[in-house]
Fold this sequence. Notes:
Blueprint: H1 5-13, H2 22-36, H3 44-57, E1 67-71, E2 77-80, E3 84-88, H4 96-111, H5 114-125, H6 132-135, H7 139-167, H8 173-182, H9 194-206
Parallel strand pairs: 1-3
Antiparallel strand pairs: 2-3
Helix pairs in contact: 1-2, 3-4, 4-7, 4-8, 5-7, 7-9
Amino acid sequence: MKWLPLTVLGLALAGSARAEDIVDVMRRSQQTRLDAMPVASAGPRVQVLQRSFEQVRRALPGDLVAELRVVSAGTLAETLHGRIVVVHERLAEMPEGARLFVLAHELGHVAGHHWEQLGAVYRHWIPGEVTPATTDPVAGALGREASAASHRHEYEADAYALRVLRAMGRTPQDAFAAFTAQGLLHDTATHPGTRKRVASLRAALSGLPSGGDAE
């Protein structure tokens, strides 16, 4: 789940004339991103991703509300509005197990209510109307807390995806294959680096039961 606090604050101050609270601004920012992503043309890669998505969904609780959108530009995978899993069509080229892990990870953000949690962080620091007077004094502290929350959400979504794959009868190697396929990435404001995420997964493995349903 990608999020840049300073970008959000900039959008807020350059946005609509009507009064908005920070969650309104977050929704508008994510909708702008979504609208800018071209939907992928129907074809074999889209079909592969739709089948994989449904395969993961069948392993999850039936009341989980989520939808898939396959695009032809942008990042490999992210979740917008807390329920729309957006994936680049090139995800279809990953090995099946790695692809399932990436999709399960994004659904982990949905199941974990990470969008709502991040909104609560922003609203804590900016409880009223978004103006320079309300954002400037807290931008640094908000950025640090939002980044820490985003990192925590990535670890939680990784662990969730690992449990889902185990419930589907897959092996943990599928999770590690997903990181191998994406290459070595370093820390960003929203994501811990690859080495940290792999280490966290290995720690999660030590506490996993031999099987069972995804939570």
